[in-house]
DNA sequence: CTGGGGTCCT
DNA sequence: AGGACCC
């Protein structure tokens, strides 16, 4: 077969639907507060209106606008706080379940953005006129797509994608209908033969509508997007790089020779963007599995006291352990995130993270079935002291804590797999107990904050003799476990103090010293020899079920069947 | 005081 | 551990 004919036949083999929930947070809040349904509504996080309903958008309110600005545009704007994502997470899971009724091939970006590869269900419809597994029947006689179509559709592509896309538009309509019937949430959809086109075309008609694009209109769609920054994957940095090279539009991108572009932005990105500029995108829909991390963050004006850090981390950890229990898997590592106030310039304020293994005995699987919050907090504080030099004044604008590696809850028996998996998870994580073994010397004298500063705030009178002798403080967490676990008060002394304090934080602070966090026995070293000593087929069995850290390199063979360019 | 989440790559 | 990206 001539390679050109071959190209023509196999060109657009996939069918992709992109489902975007309309102003997701705002819809959820309207469901929770029906009286707000008919009013302009914004969802607020800190000083930001992160999203708003369409009534509010008529006033010109945009995503991530400041509250001030939004209220100027619409003084009667109703605002609800959306800093707690619990309800959104809940609805997001329900939406995902509905999508899974259609196909397991669902890739999620965030809570409200989904790609579905419906190639195979479209094929089922073409074979039989219905899908016995779904309760949907599609009128195959009707050749018209549901919803809008972008661009001309005069000539049918010889690969047959035309009718596939039309069927997919009916499936998309059915998906949206089921989401609305079950949840009273509206979505918009884009239908195309790849992810890029499905996503971009769905933006054209937005609340509660859907749009289809045929391949012949792909280049046209890309031409109509004004800036390269609208291409998914082109963020702020790349946009700056491109603009400094006078590349602003997709057409600029097309005019730039690949070789020249590679030198400016790197070979991988250059190739991707040259493809994208023509509407080409071979990336596959990667089904989203379990989360790779579960985290919580809290931003604030400024936190400069260790005591307040401890209080806030404690609150975050309580919620985080609840989320982990819902998830069902056992976390194996903890990561702390800190954002330090950046007052040298108006720089963005980078985050710093520290990560460590989570010792097994802090986990709920061991006897009690619950987390030991005191020790979790001690561990988090240890990470904090690795991140922030508390001998000097500090002020933070964000604290976050996350679980980052997981072990499936064993369901009992698969001992060897479970054992090895745990080892591999722990192995790559820094073992913080093994270095600076006794550590916590800083913890002994936290009042040294401000010791040479003149800002006269809280602590300057202090330097209260903290001296619990470091030596006696230095029992390990393991020792604590062996001793008895002190019943955790509803409020810790720290929280009581914090909630009661007004202006004169005095030497009460001496009592707020973090309980001696100390080296923990962590992470037995992995024994690669154990694995290697197994029969090869057992090795394979074991490694196949490991949490995926390596990814299949995306050398899609289809690439070689794409019309040259 | 640009939010509170996430992903993957280097 | 950080960076860039997504929503």
TrEMBL record:
GO terms for biological process: DNA repair; translesion synthesis. Residues 441-475 are annotated as: Disordered. InterPro entries: DNA/RNA_pol_sf, DNA_pol_Y-fam_lit_finger_sf, DNA_pol_Y-fam_little_finger, IMS_HHH_1, Rev_trsase/Diguanyl_cyclase, UmuC. Residues 16-235 form the UmuC domain. Keywords: DNA synthesis. It comes from the Eukaryota. It holds the Pfam family IMS_C. Residues 445-475 have a biased composition (Polar residues). One of its GO terms (molecular function) is DNA-directed DNA polymerase activity. Belongs to the DNA polymerase type-Y family. PANTHER family: DNA POLYMERASE IOTA (PTHR46404:SF1). This is UmuC domain-containing protein. It comes from Melipona bicolor.
């Amino acid at each position: 077969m001539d390679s050109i004919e071959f190209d023509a036949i196999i060109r657009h083999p996939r069918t992709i639907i992109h489902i975007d929930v309309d102003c997701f947070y705002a819809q959820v809040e309207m469901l929770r507060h029906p009286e707000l349904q008919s009013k302009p509504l914004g969802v607020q996080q800190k000083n930001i209106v992160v999203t708003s309903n369409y009534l509010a958008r008529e006033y010109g309110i945009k995503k991530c606008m400041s509250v001030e600005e939004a209220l100027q545009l619409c003084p009667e704007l109703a605002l609800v706080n959306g800093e707690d994502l619990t309800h959104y997470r809940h609805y997001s899971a329900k939406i995902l379940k509905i999508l899974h009724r259609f196909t397991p091939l669902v890739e999620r970006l965030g809570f409200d953005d989904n790609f579905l590869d419906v190639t195979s269900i479209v094929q089922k419809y073409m074979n039989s006129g219905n899908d016995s597994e779904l309760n949907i029947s599609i009128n195959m006689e009707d050749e018209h797509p549901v919803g809008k179509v972008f661009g001309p559709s005069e000539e049918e592509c010889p690969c047959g994608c035309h009718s596939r896309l039309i069927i997919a538009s009916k499936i998309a309509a059915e998906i949206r209908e089921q989401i609305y019937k079950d949840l009273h949430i509206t979505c918009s959809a884009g239908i195309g033969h790849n992810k890029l086109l499905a996503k971009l075309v769905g933006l054209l008609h937005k609340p509660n509508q859907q749009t289809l694009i045929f391949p012949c209109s792909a280049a046209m769609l890309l031409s109509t997007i004004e800036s390269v920054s609208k291409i998914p994957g082109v963020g702020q940095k790349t946009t700056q790089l491109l603009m400094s090279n006078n590349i602003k539009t997709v057409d600029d991108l097309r005019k730039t020779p690949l070789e020249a572009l590679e030198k400016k932005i790197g070979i991988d990105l250059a190739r991707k963007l040259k493809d994208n500029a023509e509407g080409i995108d071979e990336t596959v829909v990667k089904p989203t599995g379990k989360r790779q991390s579960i985290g919580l963050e809290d931003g604030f004006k400024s936190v400069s006291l260790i005591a307040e850090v401890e209080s806030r981390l404690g609150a975050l950890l309580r919620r985080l352990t609840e989320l982990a229990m819902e998830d069902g898997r056992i976390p194996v590592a903890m990561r702390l995130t800190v954002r330090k106030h950046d007052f040298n310039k108006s720089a963005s304020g980078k985050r710093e993270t520290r990560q460590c293994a989570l010792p097994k005995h802090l986990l709920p699987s061991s006897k009690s079935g619950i987390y030991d919050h005191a020790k979790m907090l001690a561990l988090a504080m240890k990470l904090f002291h690795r991140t922030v030099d508390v001998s000097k004044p500090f002020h933070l604008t964000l604290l976050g804590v996350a679980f980052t590696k997981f072990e499936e809850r064993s369901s009992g028996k698969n001992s060897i797999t479970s054992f090895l998996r745990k080892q591999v998870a722990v192995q790559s994580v820094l073992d913080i107990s093994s270095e600076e073994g006794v550590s916590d010397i800083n913890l002994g004298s936290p009042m040294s904050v401000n010791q040479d500063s003149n800002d006269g705030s809280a602590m300057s009178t202090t330097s209260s003799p903290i001296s619990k002798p470091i030596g006696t403080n230095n029992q390990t967490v393991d020792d604590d476990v062996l001793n008895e676990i002190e019943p955790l008060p509803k409020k810790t002394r720290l929280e009581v103090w914090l909630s009661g304090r007004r202006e004169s934080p005095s030497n009460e602070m001496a009592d707020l010293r973090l309980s001696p966090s100390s080296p923990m026995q962590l992470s037995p070293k992995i024994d690669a020899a154990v694995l290697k000593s197994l029969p090869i087929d057992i090795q394979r069995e074991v490694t196949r079920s490991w949490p995926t850290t390596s990814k299949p390199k995306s050398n899609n063979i289809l690439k070689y069947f794409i019309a040259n360019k």
